[in-house]
Amino acid sequence: MLRSLLIYFSKAEWARRLVTRWKIAWSVASRFVAGETPEEAIQAIKILNAKGICATLDHLGENVTSADEARQATEEILHILDEINRAEVQSGISIKLSQIGLLLDEEICEENLRLIVERAHSQQNFVRIDMEDSPVTQITLDLFNKMRRNGYADTVGIVIQSYLFRSDEDVRQLMAEGAKVRLCKGAYKEPADIAYPSKADVDTSFDRLTRMMIDGAMEHDIPRVSACGRFPPIPAIASHDEARVDYAKAYAEEVGFPKNALEFQMLHGIRRDLQDQLAAEGYPVRVYVPYGTEWYPYFVRRLAERPANLWFFISNLIRG
């Protein structure tokens, strides 16, 4: 119930207007968001790189309402690719297709996506296409596959959510093609007829998909993380849940899967201790580093994911 309420708040414009006026809200949100400018985000990535941790940089924003907004978002994403290249940091980028026009017009979105992928390809960088809520799951996969077929198979990756029933078949198809997949549990409110309603079922699905991804990578010569740190291996396990992390490690060891071919991904500001531990053990670790002024929906979804995050926010709000 609490999670559903917070996901509702993440999309409510009235709640955004209210919360973003509170100075304390940004003070707490800055735990999860690297800053409002590319320069602040690049600095956060340099700190991670110094610890042997890679990054994926995300300019926050989604659900734009005009073609001009979609193009402006695209230009900002092209700019951050240039900034990553200039700074020579170990980072790719993550993007949401609704930010570059998916909900307006598929052709506009495809054109903007192609511009981003072409720029990344020319700079030897990597684009992770984030997965949003279920109404756009198939079209997101369709556009991802179109980029792969058009010569950018090494430049793009996708995200799969373990709470969706369809994810087994999606991962099966993606592994057959050697696609690079980031596996997460999912952060949206979905109907019970398409998604597992209980945490236990979502966890079981997550572990099953982890096995499928590791097995799939073994069928494709087990690609490792690139020396430059920008290109991930095939399986990227995105979780702060130690039980899920331990399961992935144990299964990889059982089947002889090398550490440098199994990447763990986590969010900026969450479980830094686990990030450091995994890096010290020799696993590739990549941190999702978001920045920008459109931080409100992302921040509220982080509160919905973990009660500890919500109580951290409330305690700071009370202290004022």
Description of the molecule:
The chain has 320 residues and is of the alpha/beta class. It has one domain (34-294): TIM Barrel. It contains 13 helices and 8 strands. It has helices spanning 2-11, 13-19, 23-29, 38-50, 67-87, 106-122, 137-152, 167-176, 199-218, 242-255, 272-280, 296-305, 307-319; strands at 54-59, 91-95, 127-129, 156-161, 181-184, 235-238, 263-267, 285-291. The chain has an 8-stranded parallel β-barrel with strand order 1-2-3-4-5-6-7-8, surrounded by 7 helices. α5 links the parallel β1 and β2 (91-95). α3 (23-29) packs antiparallel against α13. The two termini are 27 Å apart. The model is unreliable at 316-320 (pLDDT under 50).
Short summary:
The protein is built from 13 helices and eight strands.
Layout of helices and strands:
Elements: H1 2-11, H2 13-19, H3 23-29, H4 38-50, E1 54-59, H5 67-87, E2 91-95, H6 106-122, E3 127-129, H7 137-152, E4 156-161, H8 167-176, E5 181-184, H9 199-218, E6 235-238, H10 242-255, E7 263-267, H11 272-280, E8 285-291, H12 296-305, H13 307-319
Parallel strand pairs: 1-2, 1-8, 2-3, 3-4, 4-5, 5-6, 6-7, 7-8
Helix pairs in contact: 1-12, 3-13, 5-6, 8-9, 9-10, 12-13
Q: Would you identify the regions where 5 or more consecutive residues have pLDDT less than 50?
A: 316-320
| DSSP strand tally | 8
- Calculate the terminal CA-CA distance, rounded to whole Å: 27 Å
Helix content: 40-55%
Oligomeric organization of the protein chains: single chain
Number of helical stretches of at least 4 residues: 13
The CATH topology: TIM Barrel
The string of secondary-structure elements, in order, is HHHHEHEHEHEHEHEHEHEHH
Task: Evaluate the radius of gyration.
Answer: 18 Å
Rough outline: globular
Main-sheet strand order equals 1-2-3-4-5-6-7-8
> Approximately how much beta-strand content do the residues carry?
5-15%
